[in-house]
Design brief:
Elements: H1 2-23, E1 32-39, E2 41-57, E3 60-64, E4 69-74, E5 81-82, E6 87-91, H2 94-136, H3 142-181, E7 184-186, E8 191-196, E9 203-204, E10 209-215, E11 219-226, E12 238-242, E13 251-258, E14 268-274, E15 286-302, E16 307-309, E17 312-318, E18 324-335, E19 338-343, E20 350-353, E21 364-367
Parallel strand pairs: 1-21
Antiparallel strand pairs: 1-20, 2-11, 2-15, 3-10, 4-6, 4-9, 5-8, 6-7, 8-10, 11-14, 12-13, 12-15, 13-14, 15-19, 16-17, 17-18, 18-19
Amino acid sequence: MKPALSSYLLLTPVLLLGCSHASQPALQPPTTAQAQVVKSTQQQLPQAIRTTGTVHAKETATISAQMPGTIRQVLVQAGDRVRAGQLLIALDDAAMRSDLSRATAAQMAVEKQRMVAQTNAALASGTLARYRELKDQKSVSPQEFDEVQKRSEASALQLQALEAQSNEARAAVAGARTQLGYMQLRAPYGGIVTARMADPGTLATPGTPLLQVDRDGPLQVYTSVDESMIGSLRVGMKVPVSIAGTGAGDIAGTVAQIVPAADPTSRSFLVKLGLPASKQLRAGMYATANFPGATRAVILAPQSAVVMRGSLACVYALDQDGVAQLRYVTLGNRHSDQVEVLSGLAAGETLVNNPGDRDLAGKRIEAQP
């Protein structure tokens, strides 16, 4: 009985194996879909060093009072456009007008005295000339001639003194008029009011900001770069700048100034990037600058081959049999119509172009021209 049992046990796996193969269904070939295909590539690209900054006007004026005074009127609001010389703020000028009136009255009084002295000096000079002729004719005594000569000299000296007082009075009037002008704060150039920090009734003191005016013209981006980059920067080089608020792509910025002194705390340098004129740009906008760095090898895929599945980026990559496989990828920076693929894809792979919403996973792709 033992040999028969052993033979039965050996035959059982064979029968079971045969039954297992007989129960498997035949494999179906993958369905076919037509689509355009593209290739991923590997390229050497400069590594972009991204910095952030803020858009500023090329010239900004902070308006403040030069003389203390109470603000009587503020004639502009933030956002108003102004022209050069336009009155922006009027201070209470009653005291300055009073000083100007006193200085003007003093000048008029001195001027009248100077005119009288000028007449007396002319008369004394004429008398001295006649007495000189009489002296030559021996018609006057030396004492009489000396008295006339001294009176002429005294008149000339008095005229000189009053002329000096007249000049001083004119200077006082000019100074009072200048101080009166300080009571009116005007725009230094045409531009736009970007900040208003004062209201009527406020006491304005010298040095306290009251308004800020940005000059019309091209804007600049102020950004800070690490000290390790400063050797590769030069004035005039082009730097791509992205400003989200404009809704446009990269803007060609130009290095306009590199501040030579570094911030001792952050060890960074301030770089000013000139921007082309645009009505969409406004001071205060957030900007991103991409400075070129060392080159590096990157995998690039056409942006048109990337599809989004929820919040994940995917591509349909073809295997050696031309069957599409859904591949999740990690994307990097975009370069025109190409995008960096950081992971999930190798160079030279064939991808489905413009897959749209079609589910192509597991389908054999027939390439269209």
